[in-house]
């Protein structure tokens, strides 16, 4: 058969290749350690939900729902969407499984899907780690989730992130502000771009979020949402600010921070970097006290955030540790025949050891080359002579005598039975 044209991955959706997976795992492991350290438990929800779920939560008049969802009718005629984010699914699941009977701290990770225009830091399939807390009114819990993110940046060695926060008030306060904003913007309608003009009627707060530089001045002079807040919202926000100060977290209040999803109220926040160009928000979230009820559950306060793994990985410079400890080389008829069984014995004795067993034969030289390329710290060397004496060689592959004159670089022969005791010294 003639060779066919190879197919390619869908634009904006990326393969995670074997050489990159260690960095992802390291980031995920560190995040999990921090999250578990605050008592958060992982939840996993399906990648596909009813489209209605996202329309009712994220909002009909948002970029995500209007333009970016991957939606389709399945063979049974149901309207489904690939999840564009995790909050709606978490709320749906929490209601469905009766999790709202007590405060819950939940986290999740996984791919999300938005049909945005792909560019650096913006993909159509991307990955989030997110947190949702149910049943706590804050502001203490708002502070906790922000402190948790700061600890994450420390764990990932990230230093150049800045925190922006704002309060969106409650729905009554926003309604008042909405009118003020529309009265301010209406006379300038001709200066607005198409999106903003449409939003002026449907979702005017989102005009504040416009990235169009031509609108920057108009937006800068708009009335401030902060001035429309009532005393409870103000106190909530002030308590959060003073908590941040006490904990030594630097922040900026950004009164134009409104977020692109409709479910927020009161606290919203974003962690931003200047190092990634236009897609500088690496983590974002806030409070959404009305969403549970809006999705059919009993009124339950909630707060959460999600961070973008691709963006964080691009920022973090950490080198992951080597993923292979030892590479077993076997040359000679008996040694080759026995190698797999001996590898199993070694794995029994050292369950933590990451051991690659050479396959496919070849000379010592070619097997050493493979061992070196595997990134292993040591080669375990088995020849017929060693096998006859039930011994095995340990040859360090990574230490140069120039760097460490006392380092063992020579091959050391040990009894196979003693390998479990001796090998850790070489790793
Ligand atoms: P979001 O702001 O839409 O919020 O997304 C959170 C983070 O996901 C962003 O700050 C960014 O790092 C990453 N992200 C979003 N879209 C893309 C993309 N196309 N490519 C790469 N990374 C992206 C939410 O999703 C809310 N559910 C957060 C939340 C949880 N609020 C309360 N709880």
Automatic annotation (TrEMBL):
L-histidine binds at residues 85-87, 114, 128, 132, 259, 263-264. One of its GO terms (molecular function) is histidine-tRNA ligase activity. It comes from Lamprobacter modestohalophilus. Keywords: Aminoacyl-tRNA synthetase, ATP-binding, Cytoplasm, Ligase, Nucleotide-binding, Protein biosynthesis. NCBIfam families: hisS. InterPro entries: aa-tRNA-synth_II (IPR006195), aa-tRNA-synth_II/BPL/LPL (IPR045864), Anticodon-bd (IPR004154), Anticodon-bd_dom_sf (IPR036621), His-tRNA-ligase (IPR015807), HisRS-like_core (IPR041715), HisRS/HisZ (IPR004516). Residues 1-351 form the Aminoacyl-transfer RNA synthetases class-II family profile domain. PANTHER family: HISTIDINE--TRNA LIGASE, MITOCHONDRIAL-RELATED, HISTIDYL-TRNA SYNTHETASE. Homodimer. The keyword Magnesium does not apply. Pfam families: HGTP_anticodon (PF03129), tRNA-synt_His (PF13393). It catalyses: tRNA(His) + L-histidine + ATP = L-histidyl-tRNA(His) + AMP + diphosphate + H(+). It comes from the Bacteria. This is Histidine--tRNA ligase. Its EC number is 6.1.1.21. Belongs to the class-II aminoacyl-tRNA synthetase family. Gene3D superfamilies: Anticodon-binding domain, Bira Bifunctional Protein, Domain 2. GO terms for cellular component: cytoplasm. One of its GO terms (biological process) is histidyl-tRNA aminoacylation.
């Amino acid at each position: 058969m003639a060779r066919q044209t190879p197919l390619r991955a869908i634009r904006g959706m990326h393969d995670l290749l074997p050489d990159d997976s260690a960095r992802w795992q390291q980031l995920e492991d560190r995040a999990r350690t921090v999250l578990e350290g605050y008592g958060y438990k992982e939840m996993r929800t399906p990648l596909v939900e009813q489209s209605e779920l996202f329309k009712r939560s994220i909002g009909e008049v948002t970029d995500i729902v209007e333009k970016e969802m991957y939606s389709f009718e399945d063979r049974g005629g149901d309207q489904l969407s690939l999840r564009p984010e995790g909050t709606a699914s978490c709320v749906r699941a929490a209601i469905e499984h009766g999790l709202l009977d007590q405060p819950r701290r939940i986290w999740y990770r996984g791919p999300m899907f938005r049909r945005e225009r792909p560019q650096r830091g913006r993909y159509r399939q991307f990955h989030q780690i997110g947190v949702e807390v149910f049943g706590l009114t804050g502001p203490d819990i708002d502070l906790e989730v922000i402190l948790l993110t700061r600890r994450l940046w420390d764990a990932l060695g990230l230093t150049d992130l800045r925190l922006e926060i704002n309060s969106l008030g409650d729905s009554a306060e926003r309604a008042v502000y909405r009118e003020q904003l529309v009265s301010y913007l209406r006379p300038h309608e001709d200066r607005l771009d198409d999106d903003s003009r449409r939003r002026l009627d449907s979702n005017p707060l989102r005009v504040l979020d416009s990235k169009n530089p031509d609108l920057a001045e108009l937006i800068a002079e708009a009335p401030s949402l902060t001035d429309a807040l009532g005393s409870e919202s103000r106190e909530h926000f002030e308590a959060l600010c003073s908590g941040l100060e006490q904990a030594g977290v630097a922040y900026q209040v950004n009164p134009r921070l409104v977020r692109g999803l409709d479910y927020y109220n009161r606290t919203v926040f974003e962690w931003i970097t200047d190092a990634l160009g236009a897609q500088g928000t690496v983590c974002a979230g806030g409070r959404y006290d009305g969403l549970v009820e809006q999705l059919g559950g009993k009124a339950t306060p909630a707060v959460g955030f999600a961070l973008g793994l691709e963006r964080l990985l691009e920022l973090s410079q950490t080198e992951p540790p080597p993923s292979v400890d030892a590479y077993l080389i076997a040359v000679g008829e008996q040694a080759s025949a026995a190698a797999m069984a001996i590898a199993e014995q070694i794995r029994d004795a050292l369950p933590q050891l990451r051991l690659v067993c050479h396959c496919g034969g070849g000379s010592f030289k070619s097997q050493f080359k493979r061992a070196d390329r595997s990134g292993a710290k040591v080669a375990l060397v088995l020849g017929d002579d060693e096998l006859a004496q039930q011994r095995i060689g340990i040859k360090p592959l990574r230490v140069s005598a120039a760097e460490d004159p006392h380092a063992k670089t020579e091959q050391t022969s040990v009894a196979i039975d003693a390998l479990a005791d001796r090998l850790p010294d070489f790793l």
